[in-house]
Amino acid sequence: MYIPTNIQLKQYFNILKCEGPLGINYIKVYNSFNCVIKNNILKIDLIEKESKNIVSNWGLLRINILKMIIGLSQGYYISLKCNGVGYKINIDFIKQLLILKVGFSHLIYIKIPKNIYVCCLKNRILYIYGSNYQEITQFASIIRKHKQPDSYKGKGLVYLKESLTLKEGKKTKY
After folding, report:
1. Is 144 contained in some domain?
2. pLDDT, tens digit (0-9, with 9 covering 90-100), for 48-80
3. In angstroms, rounded to a whole number, what is the distance separating the alpha carbons of residues 147 and 139?
């Protein structure tokens, strides 16, 4: 796997440290794998090919390291759209809170994690940006869980690139 020039990888026993322009991340490497870094190329070898679990974790480790490298060099973002009459998203930058008004009698307050950046356009579209892909998707799913899209009207919090298939309503007989 190729390592960009703005990323530095160092291995300390079974922990791989990755430094980039957007921060520092760590990943644990199990004893069944051997990581070799030479000339900006990372090679991950299997020490034991005994069980099926080790081989499947090999691919998982490779993908996690790749996502960590991409996240620290470019970053990731996810966008959520608020569908519905009167639904709004606001951000309180002082208290680091996300304020959702999504059809309940009360407002919903969500604490924004320290390493995630949030931007809101026209109180309808929310952009979540950061260097760790897992944390961003987890935070987006926590937000979306408060008001999932309705299957009949499409009201709720929807990923921007998500396409909803709306169900047909109840038919009346005349």
Report:
1. yes
2. 777 777 777 888 888 888 888 888 988 999 999
3. 14
